[in-house]
Please model this.
Amino acid sequence: MSEFLQSSLDQVNPIAEAWLASGVSSFSLWSDGTLIKKWGDGISEDQETVTAPMKYGELRITGRDINSALGRLSIDAKIVTVILNQENNRKLLCEELVNTRDQLVILSSISEITRKIIDPEELLSVLAAEAHRLVNTEEIFFLINIEDQAPIHVFYPRQSLDSEYLVETSRSIKSKLQPNLISTHPYENGDGKNRDILFIPIRVYKSELAYMGCINNHDNELTSYDLKFARAIADYAGKEIEKAYLMRANIEMARIDTEIGLAQKIQKSLLLKELPKVEGLDTYLLFQPASRISGDYYDLVIKPNGVIDFIIGDISGKGMPAALLMAMTLKVIRSVADIDPSPTPDWIIKRSNEILYKDYNDSVMFSTLFIGQYNLKTREVSYSNAGHSPIIYCPAGGRAEMLRADSVPLGIFETQNCQIRKIRLSPGDVLVLATDGINETSNQSSRLFGFTQLMILVEMLAQKSAADICEGILQAVQAYGGVKVQEDDRAMMVIKGV
Model:
C-alpha cells in the first residue's frame, strides 16, 4: 500500500499546498501508522494535530487553532480517496492491458507454430513446451479425455505422473469450472519433496474434456502472472484441440468420400445402364439408388445357346460393406454362370452360395437372389428364388401373382436347397423383377406401399409397354412416399412377351 501511495503523491500535492497556504504548519499522509509524505515544517509542542481517516490511510494537519478545520479535512480525505481510487483503477487497467498485450503476443507466436498441426498429440507436445517456457513451473502436462476414445496425455520436459493416476485424478475433480489444486501426489525426483498439481480445465466442444496441468514443489508457488498465462494458454489449447479434431475429421471425411466415389465408379462399371434387346421380349430397366453406393444388383446376359439369364438381388445392410459384397456377389454369379455351358438357375445359386458363404458369414450379412432363364425357342422361363421379393408375374388378361421364394438367401446356410420352377412369357405376359425399395416405400404415416398395391398396379399397367409399366410403378411409388427422403435403393426390370 505504501508503494502505491508513494507513486500517487503528485495527485495529493495540490491539496497539501492549499492547506499550507491557509496557515497550517504541516500536512501529512499516513498509512498503517507509517508516514508516507509530509508537506510543511515539523510539529512543535504548542501546536495541535487533527486527523481524518480515509480508505488508504489518513490525513493529518498541524497548527494552532485548527480544531475547526476537521470538517474541511474530512472532505479532503474523501476527495483524496476518490483521486487515489481513480489512480488505482488506472494502474490496474494499465497492468491488465500490459498483461493482455503480453498474452496476445505470446498466443500469436504460439499460433504461428501450431496453425498447421492437425494431430492432437503433436499439438499438445508443442503447447506443453511453449507453456513450460512461459510459466514458472517445474513441469507441464496436457490431458485429453474424450469419452469412447483412448486418453491422450503429453508431459514436458518429462513424465512424472503415472498415466492411470492422471486420468483417474482428473475424473475425480468435482469443480470443473475453476483450476483445482491437488497436493502431495506420489512423485519423487530425488529431492524427497512432494509436489502440487494444478489442474486447469479446458473446454472442448463446450465440455470439460481436457486439462492443462502445472506441477511444482510446495516451495515454488505460481504467481498471479503465471496463473494468467497458464489460463490463457489453456483457453487457447481448447480452441486448437477442437480445430485439430475437426481438421482430422474433415480429412477422414474426404478420404471416405474419395473411397465412396471410387466404389460408385466401380459399381457403375459392373451394372448395366440399359437392357439389351432380346427377340420376343420388350424389356426395360430402372435403377434409383438411395445414396451414392448401393447394395442392389441386377444383370441380363444373352448366351450363345439362345438362353437369356436375368438376375436381380439385394444385399442386406447399407453403405460400403453392402457395396463391396454387391460387387463380389455379382462377379461370382457371372463367373459361376460361365463355367458350365448350360448351368441351371438353382445350380448357379447353390454354387455361388458355397463360394460366398464364408464372406457373408464373417460380415454377418446375406443376399436375396432371383435368377431366371428365358428360352427363346420355347418362350419358357425356368427360375429359382433364394429369399427375394417382389417378383410379380402377370399373364395376359390374368391376375398378377407373386413368384415366392422357396429357399433362404445366400449366406444364411452353407448349403442351398432352392428348386427349379417354370412359367411362360407368351405375348402380353409380364414379369416384374424388383427390389424391396419399391414395395417398402413408406408414406407420412409410415405405412408401406406393400405387395398387394404393387400387384394391383401391375395388373392395371399390364397392357402398356415395358417402359410405361416401369415408369408407372415408379411414379406411383414416389407419389406414395411424398416428400419423404428415399430410404432404400430401387431396382426394377420389366420383361414383357411380345
